[in-house]
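Hi D.,

Good news: the full-assembly prediction came through. Inputs first.
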Amino acid sequence: MPYLHSVKTFIKALLLLVICSVSYANQTFTVTDLAGRDVTFSSQPERIILGDSRYLHALSILDQEDPTKNVAAMLSRLDWVDYGSYVEYLKRFPNLKDIPIIGRSSADSFSIESAIDLRADLAIFSLDGHGPNARHANTIKILEKAGIKVIFVDFRKSPLENTPKSIALLGKVLGKEAKAQTFLNFYEAQLSKVTDKIKSLDANAPAKVFIHSRVGVKSGCCETMARGMMASFFDAAGAHNISKAVVPGIAGFMDLEYLLTNQPDLYVATAVGSKGMPKESKDDELPYVMLGAGTPNDFAEKSLYDSIKRYKLNHLEAVKSGRAHALWHGFYNSPLNVVAVQVAAKWLYPKHFSDLDPEATLEHFFNEFQAIPLTGVYWTTLSSDEYK
Amino acid sequence: MKNNQKSTLLAGDIPLPVLLSILACLLVLLVGVAVGVGAVTISQPVVWSVIASKLSIYSIEPFWSLGRENIIWSVRFPRTLLAAMVGCALAVVGAALQSVTRNPLADPHLLGVSSGAAFGAVIALLHTGMILGAMTVPIFAFIGALSSILLVLAVANFSSAYDAGRLVLAGVAISFVLSSLGSLFIFMGDHRSSHTVIFWMLGGFGLAQWDQLGILFIALIIGISYLVYKARYLNVMTLGDESASTFGVPVVRFRLAVIIICALLTGAAVAFSGIIGFVGLMVPHIVRILVGADYRKVLPLSALLGAIFLVAADIIARTLIPPEDMPIGIITGLIGGAAFIFLMRKKQMLPQ
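Then the structure:
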């Protein structure tokens, strides 16, 4: 009889062990990040470090209620890199101003010891760009030794290819897979509106584009993007980026003389400013092109005009013929990038894409996938007669 | 000799072993402070208890958090040791080069080593990617440093160069060439990533790793042992090549040996910390002002003072604008320059 009791006890213990193992196995999951690293989680992360404050847009997709609630710290102050969005987030989530900033945009400024002391359990870094990236093996090693999991996402290097992968990865890691899938369906549908139609275009005569990047940040003419980032959107929309022939890397500089002798059909400035930002104007001349949250169209258009004048780009045929545009710089490192592709397609081939409605896409994006409302314009065209 | 002693601040007052002991204690004290301060302040009992338990000096029940332990052992302690070792290496190299080139302004970067290292780092940071993992930048920087010294020796046609001046000029020329090539490769790379290169060039110890320290430590032991062993030769070399030959020093061979040792030491230091100026120039001069020009004293004291100086500079770099680290090169330049001017005003720099 005591023998039977022992057997029963043993079976109970065994069952308990199996149940515990199964529940642990259910909790434990492994993901492959955008750097091809396998990362295993034993539980859902609760204290997150953002390698770029602008990743709040990505977190918003997964949690519209409060994307800031699990953010333990971040790099690069949002009010420096995206002032308009910062103002909007701050209105809804006043705790944003209390989130510690543990570094600027460069990887070298990242404070590893602050990250450890904040008891973070996840760091979301960019494959390439602001903050530590996949090349900073030492940083990753130290963080992981301290129990902070590191995953790499990418909205910048190969944005159209990696945005869906990045959102799917974040959805899996943060336990928001259903929401991530809803977004991915929307994203793919909106992207295919351009990519499917591009195939029927005459590939022999693509429209030539010049992307004038971060207008106003550098005094000389003209910083540009040749590959990846913003350039990807115009590639997807069937453009011929004239910078590719000159700039060897991802980004670089184009000479004004080269621009004047190799005229683009389309001039696109990227806007790093927003209305209301500190040092907004000097002698009534706007230092940057202004777009994004809280920026009205007339203000955006004036800023584009001022910049074109300052850089002596008014001699470009694209400017004279009303094909000078500006695009919110934040698109280059954001899951909103599909909107930029639609805008690019519309600018490049207006007849071909007459039925495309990027405004509606942007509106839907903010209504369904963002924690802040849509305020302001995210692109503009130098259309008013007084500016031509 | 008496005359020389009178013209120093400490010579004759404090015996060398006592002076070395005082500086060693000061260094240990500073290491404790360095590990305790930063973005997060950690008390000294915790600092030394963690270090003691990790080194198995004595067993202790942890009264600290795992986070603090990680900050101390994985981040700050290796960083502080790296600062001490780099300071030690650069100061000793500066002292040795000032002797063999008979140039009071000689420093570890004189012979193009830092330009070569920077060129290697630019290639790694902007063009190759991390093909060798975490060691990519140090390896490329070290190869760049060694390549530059080989170029300098080739240009100076060292085997027949009896005067040090030719060597220095070759170093300056190669430095300019490699700096320009480095700039060209920065221009050809993604200019948005160039801040990483600039940060590296300004120097820092932020990513020190235990497995890297061993390499530098071995280089340091070999290099300093050789130089201390040949301290008598270094003393004689300051008198000029002819006098040194008269005293039985194989001038050309010895100068070549010292330069190669110095290049290896500087290359190893620069590879892990980036380019840190002023330590190798300033520390040996301060030591000479304190104890005279005898290299049997100058070398060990330079080693300790260099370590103390860089650990102190690193403390400032980490506490000035927390939670960020200011590049160490900025601190060494500011403090070093100011201290140097102050000492020069207080006391005329000793002739070699």
